[in-house]
């Protein structure tokens, strides 16, 4: 990222839904963080160790980000998914000492790695990065903790709009190197027109979100990570995922395009239902 200037509840047969006045959540345990709600930081900074427990490091032929959305599935960009072996890191924060948080009590191990046994890309994903969304199913269920929690996905009901979003990742920073510490920053929603003008060779439509900031942007290595915002849901402030990092400028200093999660939420739910009971399906697409 560049700065410019639920336990083991099985999901095999059904998806756990949390009821609320605004709709239903994919996982009712989502966004329960020890850090609580922290202000978004305009311009970017190192994220608080407990503030983004849904962040996943996706490792294939290249580094990408992802978000934990249930105890078995990770949401990421389709262009991050490759036919070769893939794995995911959960609970990571400071990558120089992977899976470790430094606290007053010393070094606390937090993370672990799981292999991916099923990879699902949207059937209409293409080289122009249309429908740039995919799911990774981990080889086993994860147990939620202070460091590993799913982000909220609203699967039914109205999604409250937001004018600004949080971006997080370990991608390239101003010195052109990947960040050792998870970074976060704020970007602002803009009209799709600006992204269409910036990337005239691509089609930018309602299936995507255009966002930008004067002092921060996603960069190489941030692909697949979440575009999120904190929203009041019933009696809690929860972090919802609005988008998935798809593409931006080579200089990482302009408008960036994010796959619109709300537009694809039926695909997410149906794909999880379809692939929850199947074993070792490898690499494939889902309509």
Automatic annotation (TrEMBL):
UniProt keyword list: Calcium, Disulfide bond, Hydrolase, Metal-binding, Protease, Serine protease, Signal, Zymogen
A Pfam match: Trypsin
Annotated signal sequence range: 1-20
Lineage: Eukaryota, Metazoa, Ecdysozoa, Arthropoda, Hexapoda
Entries under Gene3D superfamilies matching the protein: Trypsin-like serine proteases (2.40.10.10)
An example Gene Ontology molecular-function term: serine-type endopeptidase activity
Stretches assigned to the Peptidase S1 domain: 41-273
Name listed for the protein in its UniProt record: GM15551
GO terms under biological process: proteolysis
SMART domains named among the record's database cross-references: Tryp_SPc (SM00020)
Classification via CDD domains: Tryp_SPc
Family (UniProt): Belongs to the peptidase S1 family. CLIP subfamily.
Gene designation: Dsec\GM15551
């Amino acid at each position: 990222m560049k700065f410019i200037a639920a336990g083991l509840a099985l999901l095999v047969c059904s998806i756990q839904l949390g009821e609320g006045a605004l709709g239903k959540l994919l996982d009712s345990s989502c966004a329960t963080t020890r850090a609580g709600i922290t202000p978004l930081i305009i311009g970017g900074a190192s994220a608080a160790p407990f503030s983004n427990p849904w962040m996943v490091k996706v490792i294939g032929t290249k580094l990408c980000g992802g978000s934990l959305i249930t105890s078995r599935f990770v949401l990421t960009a389709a262009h991050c998914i490759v036919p070769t072996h893939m794995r995911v890191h959960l609970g990571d924060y400071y990558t120089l000492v992977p899976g470790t948080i430094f606290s007053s009590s010393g070094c606390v191990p937090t993370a672990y790695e799981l292999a991916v046994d099923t990879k699902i890309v949207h059937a209409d994903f293409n080289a122009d990065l249309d429908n740039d969304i995919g799911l990774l199913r981990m080889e086993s269920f994860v147990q939620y903790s202070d460091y590993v929690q799913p982000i909220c996905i609203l699967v039914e009901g109205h999604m409250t709009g937001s004018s600004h979003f949080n971006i997080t990742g370990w991608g390239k920073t101003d010195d052109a190197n990947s960040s050792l510490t998870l970074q976060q920053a704020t970007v602002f929603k803009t009209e799709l027109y600006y992204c269409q003008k910036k990337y005239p060779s691509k089609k930018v439509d309602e299936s995507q979100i255009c966002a930008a900031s004067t002092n921060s942007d996603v960069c190489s290595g941030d692909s697949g990570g979440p575009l999120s915002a904190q929203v009041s849901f019933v009696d809690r402030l929860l972090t919802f995922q609005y988008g998935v990092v798809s593409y931006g400028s080579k200089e990482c200093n302009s408008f960036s395009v994010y796959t619109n999660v709300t537009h694809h939420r039926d695909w997410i739910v149906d794909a999880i239902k379809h692939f929850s009971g199947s074993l070792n399906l490898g690499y494939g697409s889902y309509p």
